Amino acid sequence: MIRILIVEDDANIAKLMEATVAIGGYEGIVCNNGAEAFQKIEHENFDLILLDVMLPDMSGFEIIKNRTNTESPVIFITAKQELTDKVRGLRLGAEDYIVKPFEAMELLARIEVILRRVKRTENSYHYGNISVNIEEHTCKYDGKEVYLTPKEFEVLVFFIQHKDVAISRDRLLAAVWGFEYEGESRTIDIHIQQLRKKLNLKDKLVTIPKLGYRLESAKE
Amino acid sequence: MKLWQKVFLYTLILVMLAVSMTSILLLKNSFSFALDQKKQSVYSEHEFLLTSFKSMMITERFKENAIVLEEKTLQKFMKKTFGKNKEGSGILFFNAKHEKIYTNKEMKLPEGLLEAVIETEKSYMQVQEHQLYTASSESIEGKTYYVVTEHDITDVVNIHENMLWQIQIISMMCAIVIAFILLIVLKILLHPLKKINEGTRAIAQGSYQKRIPEKGHDELSELAHNMNRMAEAVETNVRALEHVAEDRKNFIDNLSHELKTPLTSILGFSDLLQIKKDITEESRIEYAGIIKAEASRMRTLSGKLMELITVGETNLEWQQENMQELFEEIGNSLKVITDSRDMNLFCEAQQGILCVDKELFKSLLYNLVDNAIKASKEGGKIWVNGYFNKEDFCIEVSDEGVGIPKEEIDKITQAFYMVDKTRSRASGGAGLGLALCKEIVSLHQGTIQFESQLGEGTQVFICMKGGVGGA
Fold first, then answer.
1. Contact at 8 Å (CB) between A141 and A129?
2. Is ipTM strictly over 0.85?
3. Torsion from C-alpha of A190, A195, A200, A201, nearest 10 degrees
4. CA distance A109 to chain B (A)
5. Most buried pick, A74, B63, B116, B345, via CB within 10 A?
């Protein structure tokens, strides 16, 4: 299981981040002060560190500057949104810089990007009798290969990665088509219909009124 | 043109004018003196020549045995007498009819000389082209003759011209020497000005800490001194402005942080509630509870913030208040809170009157006691004491709580500063209470001081002016 260290002094935000990474199927380890976090980072390897910049005893920047174990990738999470802080954070070797307040899905999406970049995500996913291989870009239903368009494939992968999560059309557009895509959300509905037809997902890929879609977890 | 160039040029011109005027005047005097002397000697020579000519003529007359010598005889005699002397001074005779009767040299008479003599029958002298002409009328052998002698005065004129030439050379040399000395003196005198110039330019370009050297006691050092004072004033003001700007930036930074922290929780947990499918009842209650708590934290923050921002701007209602009654009133309402937490509050004041804004004064005491409550454990004691010290009204608020570390005491009145963030947030603090207290005290022209011992308690001392004790 992928382990993510959450360094955040505000207990509620730490709890929020823990719950958010749990949606993505990751294990969150919470640490609420800088000194303890530093010790952890030095002695343990994590798949990712979510690091708050403003900590009471030791700033996140300091922790990154002083660490000798640079194995784990870092995402800074901070209330400071000035460009200089952002640049400073990225210069120190952070993979990303997220400004508070953030949405749960945004945090997850950014985490996935980083994990994919450092190749810590899985290559294949299984959902019921559907199996997906990201590297080969193939999708099998009951062992038989099913042809999917590239976008349909990505939409499917996104839903499998976020089982039981209601995903808005906007979020899906941003994740699959990119943030600059200015197409209609109607495009999404067509792709969803195609997926339902090709993979027999009529009952699983449900429509949530006024919000979007959700892939219900497969019964084991 | 630069100042040193102007001073240099004007001084040089003036000095040169004075030198040349003086020398030309002196030269002119000495020349006319020399010419006068020459004229005298020439005149006596002229007289002598004529006198001797006349006496020689008497001898001639005896020799010729004539009573009166004819003009022609005279002519011959003149030739005999002056003919030999060709190199010496020239001589010219005219008869009464203005006819030239004898000359031993070609002469070019100055115009008007002869006419003046004929008219007035007196002697005249005139200078023309290095020659001095002396004319007089003489009566020789009963007839009037006019005699003009010519004398060479080239030597006098030469000496004059020579001296003129020398003076020109001396003046030129003087000019060069004076110019050289003037340059050095000006450079030395204006050196401080250059320093001042460089210094002010540096200051103007932003090096406000730079100072100009102040040497000597002249106007320039005075100027440098004043410039330095100006730079000091500018530096102080700039520092103060920078300080204010930094304070403001810190305030905004802290404010945005304090706003974003609860906002992140509210947005995040509501997001989770919306997108997650199966949420246990337990989690739902927990998430909703967090959202509510964080929202109320924001409400506290915004309320405190409004109070802090408007405290200096609202119209204050200054009124004479009886301190004993006011403290009793505040004590009674605060006791409700302390009693619910099993704490003991002792709130009392001496009899007396102080001019205060009642609402702000209440807010001050509420905030201080609120801090004391947050710092204290169950069963702790809190004292609020008001007493008059001469004209001042003093308030002491003390508790037996956790105390404040020494190195943090200076910072506690800064907005958003919290000694223990986790603890403060847990009890719903925004870090603005003491900033507000400080503002209220300064509106009442008072002072606020803190004393604390870690683990033993904290005392707050407030002194306000303008009280009337007793009554």
1. yes
2. no
3. -90
4. 14
5. A74
